[in-house]
Amino acid sequence: MMMDRRESPAIQWDGEELILLDQRILPLQEEYISYRDVDSVAAAITDMVVRGAPAIGVTAAYGVVLATKNRLAASSDHWQEDLDGDLERLAQARPTAINLHWAIERMRPLLDGDRESLVKSLAAEAEAIHQEDIAACKKMGDLGAAYINPGSGVLTHCNAGALATGGYGTALGVIRSAWRENRLQAVFADETRPWLQGARLTAWELLQDNIPVSLLADGASSWLMKQGQVDWVVVGSDRIAANGDVANKIGTYAVAIAARYHGIKFMVVAPTSTIDQEVASGDDIPIEVREAEELFSCSGGRMAAEKAAGWNPVFDITPAELVDVIVTERGVVENPTREKIEALFSV
Ligand code: MRU
């Protein structure tokens, strides 16, 4: 069943096809692309049609449905090995967002089920992952908003909104809830070079909900803090290590350092599907490095000097000691440590 586009703007499933909003061209164009095979779903993740860790996870779950459907239809003797290869390629689509692997692993046990009803049961599981992510975001929104005192200024980085999740958003979920509760004086968003997720996506989303937002060049955030305009930094995450180190969009680390220097609180909002207990610390989280070409141009026009080289890591690690709270759907962890994060999973 299709979900309401306001509830889930980025991802739709109509029972046969996966329909993604093309986030590369927002907000100037609002176009949807339909997918019927797993390799094109993997390419959509790699190419940033869909992005944001939880949204990548939800998309991958539907990718598993399409892969299985096509392998069963081809009725080869080795469909299961072929399917393993499909899921392997899907898992490689982007390296940092752990939700991609989490979703594939959650779908995998169902593959041992009855062949006749397999596609139906996989589709039901993918839809459950999608719905649960929206519910988790709403819960985190309310838990996180409770930390924000009325009259506060918040700064966010990248886009951790409805577009980056099943719906409602993680960091933007907190901002949505806090706005509804009249807690916010001002919302600031870093533009987030080179893909401009802040300028293009966060601003688009917030303004659709009539939440006013001011954009900043990435380098301006510490100066904004110095003016006393920010009480909380609120961001999402692509992967949280067992010790509470946080991988998020490149530039998050710099914002966290500046926040600590200025005595500003730093909140990370992420569902437990983003916590990777297999990695001990941020040192073990793979950081995606994309083509330097992405740095050289803007809206298709070259800006950089012709022969300049470039380095384009798209995530960084904020150490747990710079994080004041991690908000999950299972509860909030203050001053995160390995023990406190472990305790979350025993609830
Ligand atoms: O490269 P992107 O746009 O996929 O990066 C997204 C982020 O860094 C988000 O902050 C993160 O995935 C959390 S989304 C709720």
Notable traits:
347 residues, alpha/beta, Four Helix Bundle (Hemerythrin (Met), subunit A), Rossmann fold, seven-stranded mixed β-sheet, four-stranded mixed β-sheet, binds 5-S-methyl-1-O-phosphono-5-thio-D-ribulose
Describe this structure in words.
Helix content is 38%, strand content 17%. With 347 residues, the chain is an alpha/beta fold. It has 2 domains: 11-136, translation initiation factor eif-2b, domain 1 (Four Helix Bundle (Hemerythrin (Met), subunit A)); 141-344, 3-Layer(aba) Sandwich (Rossmann fold), CATH 3.40.50. A 7-stranded mixed β-sheet has the order 6-5-4-7-10-15-16, with helices on both faces. α2 (53-74) packs antiparallel against α5 and α5 (118-145) crosses α6. The radius of gyration is 20 Å and the shape is globular. The structure holds 5-S-methyl-1-O-phosphono-5-thio-D-ribulose (MRU).
